[in-house]
Amino acid sequence: MPATIYHNPNCGTSRNTLAMLRAAGIEPEVIEYLKEPPTRERLVELIGLMGIEVRGLLRQKGTPYDDIGLGDPKWSDGELIDFMVQNPILINRPIVIVDGKARLCRPSEMVLELIPDTGLTSFTKEDGEVVSGPSATFDLRE
User: Fold this and answer.
1) Which domain holds residue 69?
2) Contact at 8 Å (CB) between 26 and 18?
3) Which among 3, 11, 114, 131 is annotated as catalytic?
4) Three-class DSSP category at 97
5) Range in 10-19, 63-72, 107-116 the model is least confident about
6) 132 and 99 in one domain?
7) In the prediction, which pLDDT does 121 show?
């Protein structure tokens, strides 16, 4: 199962997502997006694959979001994408692509929607929280 993760090793959510992929037997291509930022074209492609609004990919915490004033509705989608390309820390993470489908995996268990048939039934996150796999009784898409 081909997979890619846009990863920040300093982010607990990103580390948990990567660990869940590996626990499911998937060794993804790991792209540390702060070292190897996506091109503008790739970022547009990822947003389309995820089916989200551009603003849905912006990260506020620990970024220049407030300093730049990115909460102002005056910025077009194209301008917001340009800011993310220039300042990759503004890209929320982790982004996971499996078999051509992509998700922003926040919280990390959102990755389970991309890997439903791997047999992963539970996973313990770094903080000790146990999450259940696709056979659980809750809907991870809510």
Assistant:
1) 48-92
2) no
3) 11
4) strand
5) 107-116
6) yes
7) 75
Quote the strand ranges of the chain, DSSP E. Answer: 3-7, 29-32, 95-98, 101-104, 122-124, 130-132
Residue length, the chain? Answer: 142
**105 is annotated as an active-site residue:** no
Residues 87 and 99 in one domain: no
Q: Does some domain include residue 66?
A: yes
Alpha helices (H) along 51-133: 65-68, 77-86
**pLDDT recorded at residue 139:** 35
CA angle 9, 89, 70 (to 5 degrees): 150
Torsion angles phi and psi, residue 3, rounded to 5? -145, 150
What total of structural domains would you count in the chain? 2
Nearest to 93 by CA among 26, 33, 19, 134: 33
Q: What's the pTM value of the predicted model, to 2 decimals? A: 0.88
Instruction: Identify whether 42 is part of a domain.
Output: no
* Helix, strand or coil, per DSSP, at residue 102: strand
- If we measure between CA atoms, which residue out of 18, 36, 42 comes closest to residue 96? 18
